[in-house]
Design brief:
Structural class: mainly beta
Helix content: under 10%
Low-confidence stretches: 1-16
Strand content: over 45%
Largest sheet: 4 strands, antiparallel
Number of strands: 32
Mean pLDDT: 93
Number of helices: 0
Length: 352
């Protein structure tokens, strides 16, 4: 167990209503959103299956479609091509053209739900999970590999920054996979046995640490390449650790802890024995966290609908904030880190 959490004095209230560019109301829970590769539009998916491309200039739709009418769960946009992927309760993976919405490829992955779709950082490989199986595809939808040997439903997934490997988490283990060469099977090159329920998973930029947030209010760290008994565990959280976000350089890990944000320093010798930094400024429980891809800004959002921007390297006080009126369901920075897209439980989409 690492050191007890460090507390800070209450932060000054964040400024509000100074960041909003526009908002639009979809009137349905926003299950997922993503930016197009050229950051000219935001793609949104509601839980009822309403899929839309919204212009970032004014929030007006270029097109709208029905997707996964039995219930939609996930969406991600390829960072290297105009292709988006969606998954839902029907067990189907669908690829569409981001410009027109035209279906490019559709495939049923199984009888379970397609709960995660995630493009590799270089945009060449799509990972999708359905039940106990991990599937990999290229940008055209051609299968690259399938692994169905997880002991339980794949709960979480994270790509390594170099796009050459990814990690999955289920109840009894985290597994590390290399993207397979043509003609080779998809198999984990390392299985990290650990009997706990993972609800978040994040691989840092230099590939040294894989962090998992747990159902029992802890963070588990694997130091890679893994050596037995080198694991680290951070305890003392007041709530389930559902959100993990690494700083772009991989030195700092942000995590949710009730109304607070807890930052762990993984630079140098790593977080072992170090006290974390605690950021205070929210009145509701923190539900979403997102560091910029390259910059030092951290965005956080809580159950009341407040979004706060931080720059932890400079100050522990919030820089600015925006009130959106209902719990934030998703939070994504644009590819160039200049704008922040937000979706809420009541169906509002906003750009800051």
């Amino acid at each position: 167990m690492l050191s007890a959490m460090k507390t800070t004095s209450p932060a000054a209230p964040a400024a509000t209503d100074s960041l909003l560019l526009w908002h639009t109301d979809l009137d349905e829970y926003v299950a997922a959103l993503a930016w197009t590769a050229d950051h000219d539009a935001v793609l949104t998916l509601t839980s009822a299956g309403r899929l839309a491309r919204l212009r970032t200039t004014d929030g007006q739709p270029d097109w709208e479609q029905a997707a996964h009418p039995a219930g939609a769960l996930c969406l991600d946009a390829c960072p290297a091509a105009p292709v988006l992927a969606t998954g839902g309760m029907d067990g189907c993976l669908v690829l569409r053209d981001t410009t027109t919405g035209r279906v490019l490829h559709e495939q049923r992955l199984g009888t379970g739900w397609v709960e995660t779709v995630r493009w590799s950082p270089d945009g060449r490989v799509l990972a999708a999970t359905c039940g106990r199986a991990l599937h990999l595809f290229d940008v055209t939808g051609q299968p690259l590999g399938r692994f169905a040997g997880h002991e339980s439903t794949v709960a979480v997934l994270s790509w390594r920054a170099d796009s050459a490997a990814l990690a999955t988490g289920c109840y009894s283990a985290a597994r590390l996979f290399a993207v397979p060469l043509p003609g080779t099977a998809l198999q984990p090159y390392e299985t990290l046995a650990w009997k706990n329920s993972m609800i978040s998973l994040a691989w840092n930029a230099n590939g040294r640490y894989l962090a998992a947030g747990t159902q029992d209010a802890k963070i588990h760290f694997w130091v890679l390449p893994y050596e037995p008994e080198s694991d680290l565990e951070m305890a003392g959280y007041s709530s389930k650790v559902k959100e993990l976000s690494w700083h772009g350089g991989g030195e700092w890990l942000a995590s949710n802890c009730g109304t607070e944000i807890v930052l762990w320093d993984a630079s140098g010798a790593g977080p072992a024995g170090r006290r974390p930094v605690v950021l205070r400024g929210h009145t509701g429980r923190v539900q979403r966290l997102a560091y910029q891809h390259q910059g030092g800004l951290l965005a956080s959002a809580d159950e009341s609908g407040e979004v706060v921007l931080w720059q932890p390297a400079r100050t522990r006080a919030p820089l600015a904030g925006q009130e959106l009126g209902s719990a934030v369901s998703c939070l994504r920075w644009s590819p160039n880190d200049s704008r922040l897209a937000i979706g809420t439980a009541e169906g509002r989409v906003a750009i800051l």
